[in-house]
Amino acid sequence: MNGNHPSKPVTITSAAHSNRTLGGVQVASKAACLHYIDLGFSIQRTQFELRRPEQMVSDLANPQYPVSRMGKDGIMAYHKAVNRLLDEDKFREFRILGDHLDTEIAVHAESISQAQIIKNSVHEEAIKYVGSQYLNAYGSWNSRGLERCSSLETASLATKREYSAIKETIASYYHADFLDYLSVLKINELYRNHAVWKELHALGSNFVFVLNSGVRLYLSMFEALGEHTAIFVEIHRENDAAELFRKQDIAYLERGSVRKDKTFVIVDIAYTGGTVLEAKKKVCEIYGPGIKTITVGVFPKTLEAVLSMDYSLYAGRLLPTRNSSLKRESWMHRLLEDDQSDL
After folding, report:
1. At 100, is the pLDDT very low, low, confident or very high (cuts 50, 70, 90)?
2. Is the pLDDT of residue 328 over 60?
3. Angle at which helices 157-171 and 214-225 pack, to 10 degrees?
4. CB 74 within 8 A of CB 67
5. Using CA of residue 189, residue 191, residue 197, residue 203, what is the dihedral sign?
6. Quick one: three-class SS letters along the chain?
7. What are 337-343's contacts with CB under 8 Å, separation 24+?
């Protein structure tokens, strides 16, 4: 095994060559594959694993409209209704199962349109079950979720120009034939304008986002508040689906003037928090270990993710969570409370 190019020794049998049997290697990255080709190896087999299309039905960390307009009791009533519905025979096969999924309930299907139909059916039944008594506890500005509902077409000219510049830069790192498959180059909706963008902006001056999920976060914040300094870093902890399309890795991209004497606020969607912490490590390598950093986990799904972040953006609220007294049996409910002054 080459230390720079991890591989697994395997025995290769080629039916097309009289069942010739040879030693070989199994690799998981393009860089490793090219390394062995340079040594004289030849490709024996290619295989791709693809996940079925998914749709989120209920997410306590980021409730969607109209659940985002409810208070804690309404959000929990909806979540429990969705949970009950997906235990019924007609929906059970579509439910996504896994570890640490208490905060989110999602479905999968053979096509994105079928997954959307299933989601809508479950959602409509759950809303009927909950009733209207919980609706409109909050308005859009302070809602308990950040919906993707702001069309990029109606965004400001400055935001559109910023996205065009980012797309042009990102595209230069990829083979042209594959650009249509990159979701980061096809963003059509931004998160709505919300009070949390102003609160987030007050944390520092240099904002760090992870490609590719961070582009939408950055543009949403840009649309709400105007130009601000941002750094994009590329982190792939697992499932780098675009690796085959890329000509070279993106070390980092800067938008605006970075001030090393100012705080770096590292922001990303945080299922477990690992990507945010990797981004923090990378930023310290780029700008020096003496910089001041603040980590923000967006829509965290586990208690471990929440407690590992300085701040968590949870259910429409930006909350200090690293030194909080949250407990495993109650943390999801506690973060949904209207009064979180004693976290």
Report:
1. confident
2. yes
3. 150
4. yes
5. negative
6. CECCECCEEEEEEEHHHCCEEEEEEECCCHHHHHHHHHCCCCCCCCCCCCCCCEEEEEECCCCCCCHHHCCHHHHHHHHHHHHHHCCCHHHHCCECCCCCCCCEEEEECCCHHHHHHHHHHHHHHHHHHHCCCCCCCCCCCCCCCCCEEEEHHHCCHHHHHHHHHHHHHHHCCECHHHHHHCHHHCCCEEECCCHHHHHHHCCCCEEEEEECCHHHHHHHHHHHHCCCCEEEEECCCCCCCCHHHECCCCCEEEECCCCCCCCEEEEEECCCCHHHHHHHHHHHHHHCCCCCEEEEEECCCCHHHHHHCCEEEECCEEEECCCCCCCCCCHHHHHHCCCCCCC
7. 337/72, 338/71, 338/72, 343/319
The closest of 226, 242, 288 to 262, measured between CA atoms, is 288
pLDDT over 60 (residue 13): yes
Instruction: Report the alpha-carbon distance of residue 316 to residue 137 in Å, rounded.
Output: 13
pLDDT, one tens digit per residue, over 129-166 is 998 889 989 999 999 999 999 899 999 999 999 999 99
Give per-residue pLDDT as tens, 225-269: 999 999 999 988 767 778 888 888 898 999 999 999 999 999 999
Q: What is the pLDDT of residues 159-174, one digit of tens each?
A: 999 999 999 999 999 9
Q: What is the mean pLDDT of the chain?
A: 92
Of 228, 173, 242, the C-alpha closest to 197 is: 228
Phi, psi of 319 (to 5 degrees): -125, 135
Structure tokens, 311: 């701040």
> Which residue in 252, 253, 276 sits closest to 266, CA to CA?
276
Is 222 buried (19+), middle (13-18) or exposed (0-12) by CB count in 10 A? buried
Whole-number Å distance between alpha carbons of 216 and 269? 11
Q: Kindly report the length of the chain.
A: 343
